[in-house]
Amino acid sequence: MDTTSRLLMLLEVIERGSFAKAAESRNIDRSVISKQISRLEDELGVRLLNRTTRSFSLTAAGAEMVKKASELRDLLSDTVRLAENYHQEPRGTLKITSSSIIGKRYIQPVINDFQKRFPQVEVELRLDDRLIDLVSEGYDLAFRVGEPKDSSFIARKIARNRMLLLASPEFIETYGMPKQVEDLKDLPAASYSSPSKRIGGIRYRNADGDIIEQNIKSVFRANDAEVLLMKAISGNAYVLAPAFILDDEVKRGDLVPILTDIELLDYSAVYAVYPHRDLPVRTRLFFDAMREYIGKDIPVWEANIPDFDTMYKG
């Protein structure tokens, strides 16, 4: 291992917060990381880390080296992207991360077609609702609901994220068809909840143009969209859901849109996120393929909902 590799290893240790996590990501033993950092200190002739049995901290020299290592990683990435852009045929590995439902329903079909067109591109798809660090974990492209908080990333909106209220025929038979939003406040609801996102109310615009949030009585929470739909289909709860999680549940009559005359607000939007503006050819081509598949004006998932364009003042 050369000095460059050891510097990048030091950077990974700092970004992940421990030797153990850096070792796990590289699938090597923790002692290997420790030895390589010690060799780096010997090569540079300075102490980079103050270590104890349970923790470590950067020295002043270590902080400067980490800064240079970050610049070095960016330079190496730029060099690789520049070289790849000279290839007539895209190749290499494309690493993508996405929430589970978007990945399964919309990204995987594009991957299948993309690899038929460009067989020299390998694709690694990670389905995870947890937000990950694209740079430190080496991802080229992420598809997320909501604009990223990290302003250093490039984010491009690819679709609206329209919401709708759904209940099963059994639920409506039990509780009656609601006439106004207030009718829902004491009825059992299923809602999305994860460490990073939580839906706790129905946001809509009233006749005066004011934005109102009606609290819901959530009796079931889950971080999986398909589970929420199953709960609603069971008849035990209604659900406030984004349109992109639906397949043909409305067409089959398993779920019925309710209160369709109110103006529901979008829940953020769906974004494609990438760490650098200068995309490699394979990443740019895949992004273009996703845009084409989803649709420019009306996203493909809205076609699963009959007459959706007339609902919720969309």
Automatic annotation (TrEMBL):
Domain (HTH lysR-type) ranges: 1-59
Pfam families with a match to the protein in the record: HTH_1, LysR_substrate
CDD domains: PBP2_CrgA_like (cd08422)
SUPFAM superfamilies for the chain: Periplasmic binding protein-like II, Winged helix' DNA-binding domain
Keywords: DNA-binding, Transcription, Transcription regulation
Assigned protein family: Belongs to the LysR transcriptional regulatory family.
PANTHER family for this protein: HTH-TYPE TRANSCRIPTIONAL ACTIVATOR TTDR-RELATED, HTH-TYPE TRANSCRIPTIONAL REGULATOR
Protein name: LysR family transcriptional regulator
Lineage, broadest ranks: Bacteria, Pseudomonadati, Pseudomonadota, Gammaproteobacteria, Alteromonadales
